[in-house]
Amino acid sequence: MYTLNITKKLVKTVSKNILQILIILIFNNFLAQQTPGKLPENAVNDTIPKQDTIALKKEALEDVLHTKADFKRRDFKKKMVYLNKNAQVKYQDMQIDADYISIDEQKSLMYARGKLDSLGKIIEPVITTQAGKKYETDEFQYNTKTRQAIAFNARTEESEGVIVAEKTKKYNDSVFAMRRANYTTDDYFIKKKDTAADYHLRASNIKLVKTKNKSSIISGPIQMYIEQVPTPLIMPFAILPFSDKRSAGILIPSFGERQDVGFFLNGLGYYQPIGEHFDLKILSDIYTKGSWNLRPEMNYVKKYRYSGNFSADIGSMVRGIKGLDDYSKTGTYRIAWRHSQDTKSNPFLNFSASVDIVSTKFYNNTLNNNYILNQNVLNTQQNSTVTVTKRFLKLPATITGTASYSQNFATGLSDLRLPQMNIAINQFYLFGSKTGVRQGLLENITVNTGINLTNFVQTNEGELFKKEMWDKMQTGLKNNITLGTNTTVAKYFTFSLGANIDNALTTKSVEKFYDPVNNKVVTETNKGITGYSTFSTTASLQTTLYGQANFKKGSAIEAIRHMMTPSIGFTYSPDFGGSGYGYYRNYYDATGALTPYSIFEGGIIGSPSSGLVGALGFNIGNNIEMKVKSKSDSTGIKKVKLFESLNLSGSYNFAAKDHPFSIITVNGQSSFFNNKLSVNTSLSLDPYKIIFIPGQEVGIRTEDFGHFSVQGFNVQLSYPLSSEIFGEKTDYAKKYKSKGEVRNENYYFDDDNYAHFDQAWTLNVNANYAYTRSTASRTPTKLASVGLDGSIKLTPYWNINGSTHYDMVTRELAYTRIGFSRDQRSFTINFNWVPFGQYKVYDFFIGIKANILSDALKYKDRSFTQPNAPF
Questions:
Q1: CATH classification (class only), 66-245
Q2: pTM for this structure?
Q3: Most buried of 188, 686, 721, 757 (most Cβ within 10 A)?
Q4: DSSP E strand stretches across 125-237
Q5: How far apart are CA 345 and CA 353, in angstroms?
Q6: Please, where in the chain does CATH 2.60.450.10 lie?
Q7: Are residues 481 and 556 in contact, defined by beta-carbon separation less than 8 angstroms?
């Protein structure tokens, strides 16, 4: 009995303990399953919370693993966590977003997969974000212990391009190994506007190496594909650096053959960044017939301060075969410097430079086709200037220092001004105003003055900076004072008075005499400071007149409006050629005639005028407009400018002993066809009769007044044409029912499936005619030419452009250029051809647009013939 009671008591105790354990387990299970809010109807009992934090042991994870998803499930037995729909995992600096993610806590593995369609194809990728960069993959596996990862069909964007690899293995945060990978810089593909790149580079194995500041791709054999078609372009290896910082490296040259210099390598060189603000590029051109060229280039920039570049061409042009008559060897050089200063950096001190100095025969023996295609070989003059300008906060003055160098390729002479300084005093009023409002002649007197110092020499290339050049150097100092005032007379007239004073000093003067032994006039240079002072005064009266002629109502022309601005002025200047001034002297020529000359002749400061001037000048300005009916204008009336300006001017010198009337000049400017056609004209008429004695080329200007022979006439016409002016706008949506897309551009198609689009074009027409005649020659000079410059887009991606000039006097084509370009989205094709003229050359280029590959993946072909040789 006792035993039975003990047994019953034991059973009761055990049952009670088991029941307590079960209650605890059920309660814990209930707590584990409980989620805030209402559970979905299809939720299973083992659904885990929507947001969870899994804290594993220190040896399993180094940080907290944050997860979330629409549906979660935990398998305690297998130590697995399953996340479905909008799944996300955050661990350290990594974030994984996918349609499905599984976490193996035992193996420390995370697996993510993109969204599948009904056929099991990935339609939305897995997006992994780490250290601010995004990676897209179909599938992704990550080991939290080793930090290694494996991705399938991973899409990685680096700098200007993207890498798509069939399989990618991440060894650590710095090294990625990729198998069967494609690299492209196609912007449409990168931005997912197109599912296929227009080109890509394919490699069996690629290694991506990342550091804190840069990354790079290293691959084995790599092949280029265009529009998914393999090309013969295969490289044994490739290294592509990606970095915001500049890095040094070898520049790949282009190669080819030229008729005059043989086979060549162009652009072989090296690039070297220098600090934060400078970079240096040294290029070389090598030719098998002995020619060579070295081209250093330097760029520099300092933000908000200044920027500029320096370049040079130093080389030797070899033509023909050594030992034969056609052999020649010419050294050439070109030095260019551009510097500009940000105006905000220092408003009181500005420095700028535009230097372009070349050897005399540089363009005639150029090794660079670019100088031909950009028409630099047509230059007849080259100018260089360096300028420093200083302004003051409290002083009303501006100091400008300039060094200039001007080259004339026709004469071979150069003008050098080194240095040249100008001090300009700001305009000021001589007298103050009593009432605050200036009125009358005295209160309106203004003064402008300044000092100009110049060192000038004209020399040739061989004398530059040598003793011969310094011996010919002239120094001149010139001061100019200009006074002017004006007032209103009789309400409608403006009366002006002015005076001009010049003071000049120079270090050289000349003396002339006739040498009977050598039968020539000898000019000697005297060194020593000498100078002159001159002055002149003017008085003028000006007004404006208006007139309008109205026509009958209903007429095509409603009115003609005429505005006339006549002015007359009197100028007085003494005869500074008189013996009392000493500025002019005389010598006896071969015939014994007394011939006057200025001792400042050919000097840097000019010569004072000779002869008394008391001249009455006139100028008549005209503006003529017409009002015509117009249906296109909302007001029904349109203004047409017949003459924007039409000026007639001349003078009569009362003090002149002969030919008191000056040349009469007429200048006009107008535009027609909605200001598209621009017309500029000028006409010079000599009121005196000019006769030519038979057998003599030089004419004689007689005193016979009233003939008004044409001495000069010029007319220039310019008309820009375009498809917008003449083309009728087509409503393609109404005309063509079929619409489609080609290369991400929308087109309309006709019944024969031909695409239709706007073909934009431009055509600038220029015409020029000039007629010049003087007493120096019996035969007048005539120039007449017509120029065309235009472009047309055959398709949205094809563009043809060109220019030509036809000389109507010689009836020959002058400089002509033809070119076309093709936009291939990621790369461009350009072709330029100069078929006529001294140089006949073509240039073909195809290359990648992206900066990282622009120097590596390109093809360039050039042809260059010797001057005047058949093409």
A1: mainly beta
A2: 0.63
A3: 686
A4: 126-130, 133-137, 139-143, 149-158, 161-170, 175-184, 199-210, 214-219, 222-226, 229-235
A5: 17
A6: 66-245
A7: no
